[in-house]
């Protein structure tokens, strides 16, 4: 491990990881929800999980902002939505240039860290947002896309998703020839391939095709919760062999195997209200429902210890060099008790220390591993 840590100290440029960890979160959906809320993320917000005020308080140094829409926005709409969300990020940066800056590689992230500005990066969640066009992929890369999640829950014509591989009758699974071309193009452009949301067949096709380390930007451990979105131990080991990193998701449904059943009862109980909210908030209706019935929703949340078990299990399977943090804040309706916003990352550090984690390992998990993969893909 010491051979891996020395370059990390040099790259970050700080005296000691024990004094201050580089903290990177690889997945936050606030930009897609902001199109609805119109929130000024430069100011403290009463709802949601992210704003620049709370990010600074929580010690967040770099945030990958997810660019997302669901499959209802197809050809002629998804790419446009992606650009609207990137425009929102650009506007936030223009309003707060001393607090946040867009970065495209590890060197720029290091510089932002030294300047005490939040390093903003862009991750596009869902290959459908390129609308099967390589020029759209190139365009998003030019705008700052640093990873592409090959599928969301919906498959594309060139890659199958975890949802569809497990619940649909497919004529084929995995990457098509065009899908492999996309992986190669991402490698060439220095854009990280993200395999969260993809099915197992696509997962292994990606590892057989890529020339660069890949990531799972927001996934948990299947052995602790057998959800289709989580990664099996065999997959975790294969990802580690690739040099990649799995970033642990905070969503209660991926952390706690009992959550889905409790949530379904909750949604059924409030079905009429949920239907009304759907007309206003669309995919964000469950989040609004939880806000309206906070006390009831809080009882469904798993304890923080369950999330820590996912992190610890993945470290034991992969090694601390291959695990990170990908919260999925502002993209889900529920998180473990105590994780209410970006203010709360230090609670995870405290729990890992209780388990005996050394500062070097915590430094890798909270930012060093992402920095390494980013540099390996961008060359800087």
From TrEMBL:
The alphabetized UniProt keywords are: Signal
Q: What is the lineage of its organism?
A: Bacteria, Pseudomonadati, Bacteroidota, Sphingobacteriia, Sphingobacteriales
Q: Where is the signal peptide?
A: 1-18
What does the record list as GO biological process? proteolysis
Give the protein's recorded name: Dipeptidase
Species of origin reads Pedobacter lusitanus
Listed Pfam families: Peptidase_M19 (PF01244)
Can you name one GO molecular function term for this protein? metallodipeptidase activity
UniProt key word tRNA processing: no
Transmembrane ranges?
none
Question: Which CDD domains does the UniProt entry name for this protein?
Answer: rDP_like (cd01301)
Domain of life per record: Bacteria
């Amino acid at each position: 491990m010491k051979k891996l840590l020395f370059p990390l100290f040099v790259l970050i440029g700080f005296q000691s990881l024990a004094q201050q960890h580089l903290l990177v979160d690889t997945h936050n959906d606030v930009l897609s929800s902001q199109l609805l809320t119109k929130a000024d993320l430069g100011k403290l917000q009463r709802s949601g999980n992210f704003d620049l005020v709370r990010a600074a308080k929580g010690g967040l140094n770099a945030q990958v902002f997810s660019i997302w829409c669901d499959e209802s926005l197809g050809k002629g709409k998804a790419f446009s939505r992606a650009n609207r969300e990137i425009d929102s990020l650009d506007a936030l940066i223009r309003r707060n240039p001393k607090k946040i800056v867009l970065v495209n590689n590890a060197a720029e992230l290091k510089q932002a860290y030294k300047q005490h500005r939040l390093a903003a990066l862009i991750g596009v969640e869902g290959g459908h947002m390129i609308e099967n066009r390589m020029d759209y992929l190139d365009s998003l890369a030019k705008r700052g896309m640093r990873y592409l999640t090959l599928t969301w829950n919906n498959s594309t014509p060139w890659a199958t998703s975890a949802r569809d591989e497990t619940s649909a009758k497919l004529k084929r699974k995995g990457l098509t020839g065009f899908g492999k071309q996309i992986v190669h193009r991402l490698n060439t452009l220095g854009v990280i391939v993200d395999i969260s949301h993809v099915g197992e067949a696509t997962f292994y096709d990606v590892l057989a095709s890529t020339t660069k380390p890949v990531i799972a930007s927001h996934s948990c451990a299947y052995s602790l919760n057998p959800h289709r979105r989580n990664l099996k131990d065999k997959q975790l080991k294969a990802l580690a062999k690739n040099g990649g990193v799995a970033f642990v998701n905070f969503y209660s449904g991926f952390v706690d195997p009992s959550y889905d059943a409790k949530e379904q009862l909750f949604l059924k109980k409030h079905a009429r209200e949920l239907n009304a909210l759907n007309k206003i908030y669309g995919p964000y209706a469950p989040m609004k429902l939880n806000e309206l019935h906070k006390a009831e929703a809080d009882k469904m949340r798993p304890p923080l210890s369950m999330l820590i078990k996912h992190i610890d299990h993945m470290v034991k399977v992969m090694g601390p060099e291959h695990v990170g943090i990908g919260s999925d804040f502002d993209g889900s309706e529920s998180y473990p008790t105590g994780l209410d916003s970006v203010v709360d990352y230090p609670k995870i550090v405290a729990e890992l220390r209780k388990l005996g984690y050394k500062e070097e390992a915590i430094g890798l998990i909270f930012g060093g591993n992402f920095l390494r993969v980013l540099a390996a893909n961008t060359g800087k």
